[in-house]
Amino acid sequence: MKMTVDFEECLKDSPRFRAALEEVEGDVAELELKLDKLVKLCIAMIDTGKAFCVANKQFMNGIRDLAQYSSNDAVVETSLTKFSDSLQEMINFHTILFDQTQRSIKAQLQNFVKEDLRKFKDAKKQFEKVSEEKENALVKNAQVQRNKQHEVEEATNILTATRKCFRHIALDYVLQINVLQSKRRSEILKSMLSFMYAHLAFFHQGYDLFSELGPYMKDLGAQLDRLVVDAAKEKREMEQKHSTIQQKDFSSDDSKLEYNVDAANGIVMEGYLFKRASNAFKTWNRRWFSIQNNQLVYQKKFKDNPTVVVEDLRLCTVKHCEDIERRFCFEVVSPTKSCMLQADSEKLRQAWIKAVQTSIATAYREKGDESEKLDKKSSPSTGSLDSGNESKEKLLKGESALQRVQCIPGNASCCDCGLADPRWASINLGITLCIECSGIHRSLGVHFSKVRSLTLDTWEPELLKLMCELGNDVINRVYEANVEKMGIKKPQSGQRQEKEAYIRAKYVERKFVDKSSILSSPPDQEKKFVSKSSEEKRLSISKFGPGDQVRASAQSSVIAVNSDEARRESLFCPDELDSLFSYFDTSSKLRSIKSNDSGIQQSSDDGRESLPSTVSANSLYEPEGERQDSSVFIDSKHLNPGLQLYRASYEKNLPKMAEALAHGADVNWANSEENKATPLIQAVLGGSLVTCEFLLQNGANVNQRDVQGRGPLHHATVLGHTGQVCLFLKRGANQHATDEEGKDPLSIAVEAANADIVTLLRLARMNEEMRESEGLYGQPGDETYQDIFRDFSQMASNNPEKLNRFQQDSQKF
């Protein structure tokens, strides 16, 4: 160990010794200041850390409270509980760190300052005192005169004693200095090393804690990604609902006029009305009224029990009140009391009166049908159409759109780039796409590709069935027929520009289609294409003549739709409620009407619609390989694209139809040799709902008519294709168009006594009139209309045999 002050110099008490002492004393004083400052900073840090732990603990308790509040959400509760437990462990680790800091820094350095530096200061005081005594003894010894022997001896003895004492104390002081200089190094390093080890342990403990928590956090992150997607979907749905409601609110009070007799919750209609009190003051109070369970009730607050105004609607009547000062009043009268009510507008008053009247009729009907329902359970009618709830239940229990579409060959990967698990689809092409390719398809325009999400959008049953009839393998055999011959490779995921160029060349320019597969045929060959069944079809249409009108006249008292005066009021009259909702029940009246029908046979084709007997059913439902006559049909390779599309539409051959469109076939091509019939009309005659949907999705004109003035809706009505009628009405078919005989689809359906099609046409006409009179242009219309059409669509696509009741009942006759 190197000595700071030399002991030899100490004995000499030289100027060098004094200078060394002065330097050491200054250094020790500065060291004391630094250590005092460091100890104070350490104390402040520990106090702040403890305050941080307290605040962190409060924050952690807040997280636990939030977890308890979220007990109904298992994911949130579990996550917050785990996080709060981890934060509690971190608080414990912080507390341990601050305790070790206090022991290593504060305690050790404070002890060094108080003990070792105090000894140094004490030794310095003694050294300074004895130094002063030595100086005094030297001065006194020097001043003694020679002749005073006694004083000389005394001065000499004092000086000798003082020097001995100085040497002893000076050596002790130097020892103390050297020991202090050596010890301060070890004390400072020891305390700091202990402090750093405390930090090392703290971070190791935190690392181990969060390493265990890491996998859970990763899984939670994946769940969060899905939650973000779900939240985005819910946001879009809420924005759409907000926009719809906002349009209703800005247009008029029409959004408040809706009522639904068959509502799932039993509430037919609800809203605010003013009610006149029965007291002497006749005060008016605003209350929330509702029609539910064949009762009229109201309540002041949501938590209040409803007050019943009319216990049984069958025992009451409703009427306008114009003899009081207030406007928009009406009165509900029961055998025991009368209730005066006021609406906010004339439209609302009419809506409430209509709702009460309809509920009264419904109450009578439900009571009258109870016995029939019991009979139905024991002996179900083969001629009835089951409730739409069954098809809805089957739809809910079935596979999702994504699962069903991806089961088709080739659909498990993107049609254009091959990326696995595609979540988007082009509905007019019938293919599945990844999200990047779907964006490129959108940029092509809807006349080339109509993109829809398999997971975020809702799918109509006919669209879903169309997707399942085609698929990536089928379409790629058409649109990528020459890819290998041309030496072109499909783009890979991530190559945006290459993908865009490839997709545009594939679908817009159609560079990879095999042009040699279809050759333009001369006009004389086109004339040769006359299907055997075409003459039979025309015969079938002509056979709906006078003989069928006899049956229609027997029903004219029930289905009076030929009259020009038939308006919305007639559509709602009580005598015809069973017809409007014929697909819900099996009333004896409807069965008696249908039992009068004759001359129609039942047939089925594995999910396709049945045809009347006057159409050559054998030609329509032969096996695929035997469906055409070689003497009449020429080879498809010699047909032009329009003629191939025309022929394939009748044959229900969707791959051939897609091939014809890929070769540039006009989807609205008219066959001049067959009354200018279009592919869509051929699809109707072929009896396939999916074929019609495919043509409509690819731009077919639903209102294009043949020479006889009959469009697809006319032909579907004549043939009794209920599902196709429903589809065409949903796609905007004009049911007011008349043929060369002046007949519109509704009059044809009445003559054929087809109750289901009459119901659909009348509901569509009623809905159209409501929207026109109430200014709801572009709106889907009333909920009952939507529900009925939705149920017919479900049955036409998933349970077509239920639509055969018309033919089945006619056979009984």
From TrEMBL:
Activity control summary: GAP activity stimulated by phosphatidylinositol 4,5-bisphosphate (PIP2) and phosphatidic acid.
Protein species of origin: Cebus imitator
InterPro entries: ACAP1/2/3-like, AH/BAR_dom_sf, Ankyrin_rpt, Ankyrin_rpt-contain_sf, ARFGAP/RecO, ArfGAP_dom, ArfGAP_dom_sf, BAR_dom
Membrane topology: Peripheral membrane protein
Start and end residues of each Arf-GAP domain: 399-520
Reported function: GTPase-activating protein for the ADP ribosylation factor family.
GO cellular component terms, A-Z: endosome membrane; plasma membrane; ruffle
Coiled-coil regions listed: 117-147, 217-248
Entry text on domains: PH domain binds phospholipids including phosphatidic acid, phosphatidylinositol 3-phosphate, phosphatidylinositol 3,5-bisphosphate (PIP2) and phosphatidylinositol 3,4,5-trisphosphate (PIP3). May mediate protein binding to PIP2 or PIP3 containing membranes.
GO molecular function: GTPase activator activity; zinc ion binding
Record Gene3D superfamilies: Ankyrin repeat-containing domain (1.25.40.20), Arf GTPase activating protein (1.10.220.150), Arfaptin homology (AH) domain/BAR domain (1.20.1270.60), Pleckstrin-homology domain (PH domain)/Phosphotyrosine-binding domain (PTB) (2.30.29.30)
Location in the cell: Cell membrane; Endosome membrane
Region named Disordered: 371-391, 594-631
First-listed, main subcellular location of the protein, grouped into a coarse class: membrane
Domain (PH) ranges: 266-361
ANK repeat ranges, renumbered to this chain: 675-707, 708-740
Keywords assigned by UniProt, alphabetized: ANK repeat, Cell membrane, Coiled coil, Endosome, GTPase activation, Membrane, Metal-binding, Repeat, Zinc, Zinc-finger
Polar residues: bias regions: 379-388, 594-604
Name this polypeptide is given: Arf-GAP with coiled-coil, ANK repeat and PH domain-containing protein
GO term, biological process aspect, one: actin filament-based process
